[in-house]
């Protein structure tokens, strides 16, 4: 799981908030949540998730018996906050929508990855669609589409996630560092690999440079375009073709 | 200038329409227009632009003295159609917005590139921002951001435009072939290089394969991530960090 930290409420109010949260119960369950969308809603949801853990509620991220129920529980928390705030936000045309990614593994189950929609419903990643994205997803999707399959080795997936986020940062100011990255190994029930890459981190600079060189090389290696030679004889065709 | 040909009115109504039009007056002026957005509006605008040429109106793409005035004239045509249709479209929440790219050269001027907004106002490309995009722009922007500068040779720019469109086609079903591409050389006052690449065109298959190989190589060459080793000691930190 990887996330940037940029939030904005218009270009004149840009700030930094983490969007990746480790809510694991080590040795028993690994739970990572990423957020996108309205910050007051996502913070509210996270606070309530943490409060239920701390208050040792019957239902919490640390007690629910399977990931499907965890996804439903997070969806319900999101609906709770929306019931409180949504009509007030709508009065000023403020978007209250929020997406969540939920990844992890509960003992007795396989590792799972869910995307929880603003409406509180959710979908699960499958072998055919092995990655899910939320937030500013388009810039970084081509890299993922061309490299990630269900069988891609874990370390390669991590690099690819970083490249995808870096591409997005380069093309869109609404995405920015630090980047948070965690890597989870099946049946470890603990998040052993974490990384926070701040602005100017040498690793980011290194992969960015390498990537830019590769892109340029690739595109220099491309065969020349075989133009269909046109001449003014065709000027009758006002529309091309 | 390059454009795909996919239009859709929802996933159950996908069809093919050209979005790149050569309206040049050979030996005197080169004028290429690309469109995105509501098809009835963009077709209406194109029809009116052609009609003014055919009727030898005082103001047309073939008579206006400079590209700035041409951009304003196209913006005004777009406003005309919107005045006719917009309130009817809005009744059914149909988006009437339409963007245009205008590129070319009129004798006596330097070549110019404009983006005309749905509101009829427009901006011009500059040495700092040498390319403009309309429509489904995000997937293809990272490749352009990393390769195109004001001084990139023309043939390289053409390849890069193809790669950018191909990336977008791979990641989004709302973009599809045929791809239309034209290349204009300053002071030629004629479009001498045109290309239409249909579904399954060998060149597209070739560059797609080459590009995918390069992306994979680049990303295999990336240095390993230097993980900050975390252990369960840090479990107190419910939020990462």
Automatic annotation (TrEMBL), chains A, B:
GO terms for molecular function: peptidase activity. Pfam families: Proteasome (PF00227). One of its GO terms (cellular component) is proteasome core complex. InterPro entries: Ntn_hydrolases_N, Proteasome_sua/b, UCP009120_prtse. It comes from the Bacteria. Keywords: Hydrolase, Protease, Proteasome. GO terms for biological process: proteolysis involved in protein catabolic process. This is Putative proteasome-type protease. It comes from Hyella patelloides LEGE 07179.
């Amino acid at each position: 799981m990887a996330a940037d930290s940029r939030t904005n409420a218009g270009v004149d109010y840009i700030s930094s908030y983490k969007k990746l949260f480790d809510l694991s119960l080590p040795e028993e369950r690994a739970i990572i949540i990423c957020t996108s969308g309205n910050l007051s809603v996502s913070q509210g949801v996270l606070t309530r998730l943490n409060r239920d853990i701390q208050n040792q509620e019957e239902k919490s991220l640390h007690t629910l018996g399977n990931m499907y129920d965890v996804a439903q529980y997070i969806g319900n928390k999101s609906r709770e906050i929306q019931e409180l705030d949504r009509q007030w936000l709508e009065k000023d045309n403020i978007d209250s929508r929020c997406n969540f990614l939920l990844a992890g593994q509960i003992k007795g189950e396989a590792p799972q990855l869910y995307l929880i929609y603003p409406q509180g419903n959710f979908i699960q990643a499958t072998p055919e669609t092995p990655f899910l994205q939320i937030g500013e997803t388009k810039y970084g999707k081509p890299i993922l589409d061309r490299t990630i399959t269900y069988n891609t080795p874990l370390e390669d997936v991590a690099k690819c996630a970083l490249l995808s986020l870096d591409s997005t940062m380069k093309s869109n100011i609404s995405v920015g560092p630090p980047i948070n990255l965690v890597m989870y190994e099946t049946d470890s029930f603990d998040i052993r690999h974490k990384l926070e890459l701040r602005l100017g981190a040498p690793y980011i600079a290194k992969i960015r440079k390498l990537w830019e060189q590769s892109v340029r090389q690739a595109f220099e290696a491309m065969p020349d375009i075989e133009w269909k030679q046109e001449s003014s004889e065709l000027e009758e065709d006002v529309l091309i073709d």
